Amino acid sequence: MTAPLFSIITITMNNQAGLTKTGISVHEQTCHDYEWIIIDGGSGDQIPDDIPTKNVTYISEADNGLYDAMNKGIRNATGQYLIFMNAGDCFESKNTLFEIQEHIKDEEFDFIYGDSLEEINTRKHYKRSKPHPMIGSGMITHHQAIIYNAKLFKDLNYDLKYKISADYDLTFKAISKSENFLYLPFPICIFEAGGLSQQNAKQGRTEEFKIRRAQGVSLFNASRTYIKQAVSYQVRRLCPALYWRLKSG
């Protein structure tokens, strides 16, 4: 049996509505060269009956949190490229996977990324990605807008000592290990706001500071980024219109 091009990994826990929303988005893709791996933390979230279960792996059991579940998804993935699309998140359109497939059909890439839309109270805000060399200044785009080559995960996974920012740690390491990059100048995902990192912004900033230092970023630059992130958080909270104008580029 030929391995799929994409492994879409979805983590869910007590989020039936979110899993349904993501499932519809996955099922509607015009590119069918994928497998969908669902890791449920034992809550019993189920794929709705009206969503076909072809090429779906469903695992429901207790785990040690979000990133442990993501590692479980990695271990079960057989695709060439991995995409992490958690319950509640969606692809930007039904043609998203097809468009990515068209860009990579003649060349293999280690690390692929694009822009994103962030959904807040049914309104979608455009969030432009930063260039990947800027990873030392923070996450370049939403985790759901990154496509990782599976070969990166031979000796790479989510570090469970980070409770909020293990995705940043993994992405920093993945970029360091990668040679061939592809930026796609269109939104890959619709990210559902209000998740773990946004609920624990201060802890996330602290973890990211530690990650930057562990990856060799100077104390001065790591501290400067921490301050900029704290300011950006306050701008978003107090003046969201200005924040989104800046983020849209």
- Whole-Å distance between the termini? 44 Å
- CATH architecture name: Alpha-Beta Complex
CATH class: Alpha Beta
Helix content: 25-40%
Percent of residues in β-strands = 15-25%
Average pLDDT for all residues:
92
**By CATH's scheme, which homologous superfamily applies?**
Spore Coat Polysaccharide Biosynthesis Protein SpsA, Chain A
What is the overall number of helices? 8
Q: Biggest sheet: strands, sense, closure?
A: 9 strands, mixed
**Number of discrete domains:** 1
CATH topology: Spore Coat Polysaccharide Biosynthesis Protein SpsA, Chain A
**Overall shape:** globular
Rounded to the nearest angstrom, the radius of gyration is 17 Å
Q: What is the helix/strand order?
A: EHEEHEEHEEEHEHHHH
Describe this entry's structure for a reader:
Strands 1, 2, 3, 4, 5, 6, 7, 8 and 9 form a 9-stranded mixed beta sheet that branches. Helix content is 36%, strand content 22%. Helix 4 packs parallel to helix 6, helix 6 runs antiparallel to helix 7 (219-238) and helix 7 packs across helix 8. It starts with 5 loop residues before the first strand and ends with a helix. The protein is globular, with a radius of gyration of 17 Å. The chain is built from 8 helices and 9 strands. The chain has one domain: Spore Coat Polysaccharide Biosynthesis Protein SpsA, Chain A (Alpha-Beta Complex), CATH 3.90.550.10. It is α/β, with parallel strands linked by helices and 249 residues long. The chain has helices at 16-27, 66-76, 96-104, 166-177, 196-199, 201-214, 219-238, 240-247, and strands at residues 6-12, 34-40, 56-60, 81-84, 90-91, 111-120, 123-127, 146-149, 181-192. Strand 1, helix 1 and strand 2 form a beta-alpha-beta unit.
